[in-house]
Amino acid sequence: MTNPNLMQALAAAQAQQTGIVRVPSQAERDEVAKVQGVQVRTNAAGFATQLFAGKAPSPQTWSSIAKVIELYIWGEVNPPQ
Question: pLDDT tens-digit profile of 33-45?
Fold first, then answer.
């Protein structure tokens, strides 16, 4: 048996959810993108460091591996199979 007050309960719940939603400015969106980029690069560098733990790669090798990891995190390259 369904609740006879179901439609009223749904309408009340919907009324509570409506309101004003603040839209971030372009400067705020740019800052968020910048911070996300820094986080991705930090993660990529950390992964590369772990990958080479106990080894001494050249700076060029370390940088290239970090770049590939960064692109993978952003979803711009497919993982090796």
Answer: 888 888 888 888 8
